[in-house]
Protein 1
Amino acid sequence: MRRAVVIGAGLGGVLAAAALAPHVDEVVVVERDELPDGPDHRKGVPQGRHAHLLMPGGLAAMDDLVPGVDMRAHLLAAGAHAVSLSSGMVVLTPEGWFRRWRHDSHHMITCSRGLLEWSVRTAITRSTGNIEIRRAQALELTGTARRVDGLRLGGTAGLTELAADLVVDTSGRGSRVTRWLNSLAVTGLRERTIDSGLVNATRIYRVPPGAEDFPLTMVQANPYEGRPGRSAVVVPIEDGRWMVSLAGSRGAEPPSDPEGFLRYIRALPHPIVGQLVSRATALTDVAVSRSTSNSRRYLEKARDWPEGLVVLGDALATFNPAYGQGMSVAALSARTLDHHLRRSDVLTPGLARAVQRAAATHVEAAWNLAVSQDVLYPGVRGGAPTAVDRLAARYTRRVMKAATGSYRVASALFDVTGLRAGPSRLLRPSTVVTALSGPPLPPLSAPPLTARERQLLNSFDSGSDGRGPAGPA
């Protein structure tokens, strides 16, 4: 009998279990914390109370991993929202306002992290019959430097061992896999952390009457000014609510008190977020998190790698949550595991190393996107911008500028940020030419709102910043 064991029952863990289920007799998911019975916050997710975006690439990977389930329809039925990157957002970038194009494409999913995890977990466990979620704590790997053959667990039954043909670590940012491998004499594992000091502060609001269909609204941070970054996003989530998340890098951290939260909003480069919040009813206190650094384990570069062990999700790499990549990278990596198992067996020599290297390609694309921006903020820890970083930043600015007035470039950018394509998508000749020559359409002087949206926003209080209502698009 073939058995696979997954460490962690978060999103990455249940997706890994879905990838494994068709290829083994039994999948045991080991989870330290008690899982909620419904769409509630889970203790082991530091960023769980903040805004989460499931990008188009991640949604497509989930569909592939759960045959017979239309994951988008399943999530929408649970209360999530589908938001088009091309037409369903109002976004102020460092290079100006993005247009809202007529193309209804590049859909991402927005909802609370609790709803997303619960919905995906129930879809997977109901569609498979060989996944067991067991409450216990993974204490260490068993086996040798040549092959991992299980886990040593702690739980209500005391210390036990669980044999496995394949162990997949998806235990998250706090994974102890490096220490576990060192105890098996697997050494020389390289890690890197880039920390801009980002702090997230989030509050849930009741959507004001008439604003139920108002587009997702975002004011992005500017990494090119040499000052700490400030950003905000108003995300529609389930049950007629908005999740309002603020983010500030070191030196511009958002506060945790309600009045400070509102002052921070009013100090943003544009009053649109303040206008929206002014008529919304706060439903929660301000939740603050500092678990936001980019951290990566370069396990694919290890000189020696044991058979029987794969590391995925946040246990492999974490990203600044402002870029909305972590969940989608986990889904893409789980799909990679499935693809390799379709061509081999869990005991095939070299399988674990092949999966680890393939998963690193998804990590690399997301890592470069996040780090190339974060490394530019003052006070960043873990590395200073290199000449390559600065060159990439200059080209990225040109692409962003072109995307404000060219659907062709905007679509390429959405392909990359939505994790449907790699960064090379931005180097196609048509994109490069437009990026270098500039956008064919002039910049917008105000948010791209419909007449109804503009009327609604102008009826809202613009706050105490004195900037007044939004002008015409």
Protein 2
Amino acid sequence: MTNASPSGTVEAAPVQSGPPPKSKVGSAIGWSYVLTAGRVGSSVVVTFLLAMLLGPDEFGILAMALVFVTIAQTILQQGRVSAIVQRAKLTGAHLDAAFGVLAIAGFGVAALAAALSPVWSLINREPRLTVVCVALAPLVVIQGLAIVPEAVLRRELQFRAVAIRTLVAALVSGVVGIALALAGAGIWALVAQQLVNALIGLVVLWVVCPWRPSRRIRFGAIRELWTFSLHSANAGLGVMLSNRADLIFTGIFFGPIATGIYRLAARLPDMLVDVTVRSLQQVALPSLSRLQNDRAAFAAHLTQLQHLGAIVGLPVLGVLAATAGPLVGFLGPQWAGTEVPLQVLCLFGAVNVYGVLLGPALQAIGQPGKLAAISWTRGLLGVATFAVLGTLFTSGNPAAQATAIGIAGVGLQVVVNAVSIWVTVRRAAGASVLRFLLPTLPAVVAATAAALVPYAVNRLGVDELPPLAGVVVMGAVGGLTAAAILWTTDRRVRALVRKRLPRRRPLAPAQ
């Protein structure tokens, strides 16, 4: 926790060397899952309802505008969160300087983003983008005010506080978005949802965070964070480009409808990766940072986190792929054809399960430069690949265009993950790649079996059921299949389950 100094400033307790307390890491992982499960659960419900009320065009416009805003947010952040979380010794002066710079820069970057909105609209040949981008520009200001307090909570593994903030914001913004969509607000229902989510999150964050900035800003302290931040910022821009190149070029070449189909198809598996693997990602940086001087322990902890991410992430993606057909039918005819890109992007999510933890691992071990090189390579390859696809598929239907982008993304992710695993596990941590991957094999088998369930059950007429009933049947059969395979093939899963089952007390001897 943070400690108040005699002068009234707040100093963060230094990170202790050696492994973190198991109870604290376990609690952080638990609250991280609560945080992400609650947010994703509410987001799934809200996304489904909004998709039924709206359509691909509105979702596409929002996705294209959010890409532009994300670029501005990435420029603003400049790797400050990673620098604060990873730094071994952090004082109140560091936090004060970072907060002052980010708060001031937030207004400047937001104003610049608003001014450049017509340029983004012109690039995408979509006049509606200008006003939507201007309306979303305050998200940059809000982020500038939130970065430091959130980083303080994450550094101290206080994920209970982060969970409260995220859940409240998701629930309130979801209610606002659905109410406006029912009232016929169209795209503005989605815009309002984003703004309310960020604003409520900011207010709750400052309520739950114990740290407060002082009135004095010592800009000399920012230089001590700058070296790491510069590398992390470089990596952050590369990650942003590699993660958003698909949406950028889908919008530029194919327009809002294809972008909306692709965004919804990508969002569903991405939310599952959020609740399963990115929950671990939030814990990975602070917990692995404490092991940066013990490579053997570092590699063992990273392998353990990857195994946990695989057993909770891969099977649910297989189940989602199995339910793609009836799920799209349930959303309505405006989303017809989305089931194929959804299945492709479930495969992308499965590949991404093996890449989510590698970035925090490289940052934790003090090598963000390697992460930057990998991210920029992936981003530039993505730019070239998606630009070629955009040229070749300009005359296709929107669902086929979204599918082509998804297939290309899977191929790129396979190549980049292979390189990233080698660099992180073998070169940086000095561990065996085979030992890192082998524990996840049962999860791969379970996910594959779940995804193939429709080929078996459709012969029994399940494909003729109403969409909602089809989702339930496919999901139940796929989930049970994956669970049975995991239980029989993964001894670590059995150990985890048995560890959490209540132990039976021996019967008292009869008198």
